[in-house]
Amino acid sequence: MANYNSIEKVISAEILRTNEDNLLANVICNTSFSGDIKDRGDSVTFIGLNDPTVYDYDGNIVYEDIDDSALTLLIDQDKAFSFKIKDIEALRSSIGLEDSQTKRASYLLKNEVDSYVFSLYPDAAHSVTSAAVTPDNVLSTVAMMKQKLEENNVPDGRIWIVVPPFIKTKLMLAGVKFQINNGVNGTGAVAFTDELGCDLYVSNQLATNGGKTMMLAGSYSAIAYAEQVLETQVLDRLENSFDKAVRGRLVFGAKVIKPNELVSCAVTDGGNATV
Question: What is the CA radius of gyration of the chain?
Answer without folding.
Answer: 22
